[in-house]
Amino acid sequence: MNDKQRILIVDDEPQITRVLRRSLTTHGYDVRVASDGLAALQTFGDWSPDLVVTDLSMPGTDGLQLCRNLRAISQLPIIVLSVRGEERTKVQALDAGADDYVTKPFGMDELLARIRAALRRTQAAKLDDVASPVLEVGDFRLDLEDRRLTVKGSEVHLTPKEYDLMVYLISHPGKVLTHHTLLTAIWGGDSVEQTEYLRVFVGQLRKKIEQQPATPRYILTEPWIGYRFDPGS
Amino acid sequence: MNDKQRILIVDDEPQITRVLRRSLTTHGYDVRVASDGLAALQTFGDWSPDLVVTDLSMPGTDGLQLCRNLRAISQLPIIVLSVRGEERTKVQALDAGADDYVTKPFGMDELLARIRAALRRTQAAKLDDVASPVLEVGDFRLDLEDRRLTVKGSEVHLTPKEYDLMVYLISHPGKVLTHHTLLTAIWGGDSVEQTEYLRVFVGQLRKKIEQQPATPRYILTEPWIGYRFDPGS
DNA sequence: AGAATTTTTATAAAACATTTACGAACCTTT
DNA sequence: AAAGGTTCGTAAATGTTTTATAAAAATTCT
Fold first, then answer.
1. Positions on chain C within 7 A of a protein C-beta
2. Please, which pLDDT band fits residue B115 given cuts at 50, 70 and 90?
């Protein structure tokens, strides 16, 4: 759907950052590393990560200072990672603005779960502001969250494959879409030759969408090339 | 306007709850105690706390189940407190919707700091969703306080799992809910593949809710995807 | 132990994707 | 302009996966 989530790691010990970077990367995150608080703030400025994992003790601006600085300008989740397990230190970090505090040595699975939890929260908060994603073109209105299509106000039920095809068409209105493009997009690279699929599914969509399926108005054929979706009005 | 923040403590061990209650109260919070998950959900509907601190192992609906049930209807911060320190357990709890996991024995100052951190977030995000004790949509009316469902005025008895499923459906009217979503929300992440559960429980709900269970009107199936709840009128 | 509930198992029915078939329309070549 | 080959639209046959339902087995609660 959208881009990978961005995580900024701040630590001056290469052994730690190497492990973290690899693990987070393989779990689908986009990762960058900064070796102290100052570098972290710079990276924050021009990369705008979704979450920060930082060590506490570092040369220069340390983890506590980094928390305060980040909190002054952002609400992104911060997870502090530290060898120090004293309660006093934890309280300091949390009150400085950290969202979570994990003591080294730590289990990678736990850290990943805590990262998921933190990101889940910010995701939820974002979703409250943004209305559910809707593709609206011409006579068509497709609510991605509800998985619903309406044409000129009346709802049309689509099977999964029909729906996938429709999403692709609506996402590229007016453009000529080659057989190849559509087949790889909806059926995957293995089915590039199966133009029959397209014929039957386009036919099915037309039956459901068009007033006169025989002389289509929305899904137009580009002979020898592919199809084109004209959303109308 | 400057009401106290409300914290709900869920634990069946009086020694723990007594300490927590006193400590949190002296730190300016408004505190209530529930001794199991079921009581917690009732108090939630009744009192709408700002944060929940819960034990993991309890008789009846345990901490994990409580997390899932709360997450189905609210985004309030949940802190899990447990003697169990295994990584797997932590991951389970966090993925079930917990925001934080603290291992007993714990330092009171740390817990307080973690509570402050959690509350700070929700304050900042202004996620003050007024959790109404009654969900009322279409022909349905679900009272969270006494766990009662009425359809078109007549009461329907539901078993615990049926109830959980119903709560989730009613909380997301009109949306297509994938098998995956429903299974993780109600049975937890371990049961993502057990679509049979869904089939039998949806069937059971239909028998109780629908006039004609064979041609359902409220709980609609979206083949290959999941189900959709249409609350009617 | 007995009742209620959840989980597992089995089977028939339904929804859907894929494949096949064939006539019509279209291009190319002669 | 006619023949041969190709693409396109449509309907229908086939096969696979998913769903509905009942009922047995296991678990949990009282």
1. 4-10, 15-21, 26-27
2. very high
